Amino acid sequence: MLACDPFERSVQPKVQIVVNPFAGLFEEALMQKWKITFVDDHGETVDEIFECDECPDNEHAAKLLKERLFPVAAELDLNDLEGRTADATVKNLKTQNSIQILGITPV
User: Fold this and answer.
1) Cβ proximity of 78 and 38 under 8 Å
2) Cα separation of 64 and 46, whole Å?
3) 25, 54 Cβ separation under 8 angstroms
4) Cα–Cα nearest to 55, from 64, 67, 45, 42
5) What tens digit of pLDDT does each residue of 17-75 get?
6) Cα angle vertex 60, ends 68, 17, to 5°?
7) What whole-number distance in Å separates Cα of residue 30 and Cα of residue 43?
8) Cβ-contact 48, 28 below 8 angstroms
9) Contact (CB, 8 A) for 55 and 4
10) What are phi and psi of 2, to 5 degrees?
11) 100, 38 in Cβ contact below 8 A?
12) d(Cα 10, Cα 55) in Å, to the nearest integer?
């Protein structure tokens, strides 16, 4: 399974290669694009597009947003809620950065 790469900005779409073990053939499937709608720290509604093989849940979406919006903070392990509470990144984004995820829709 391929992970979303929020820093990849190539012109060509990403491709996931699926191997069919019965026929020995390769099949190509385009990665699905997902629009994450959120309220930023200024109270404005913002849309960001990510490529993932399946719909991200709120926690995964929060991690993707944090990596894109705050790349240095995403590298640091400063989240003391990690492993102790459900949706730790969602709560951290809301309390530390005033960012709230409103929805995740396919593009």
Assistant:
1) no
2) 14
3) no
4) 64
5) 555 555 555 556 678 999 999 999 999 999 999 999 999 999 999 999 999 999 888 77
6) 90
7) 34
8) no
9) no
10) -90, 145
11) yes
12) 21
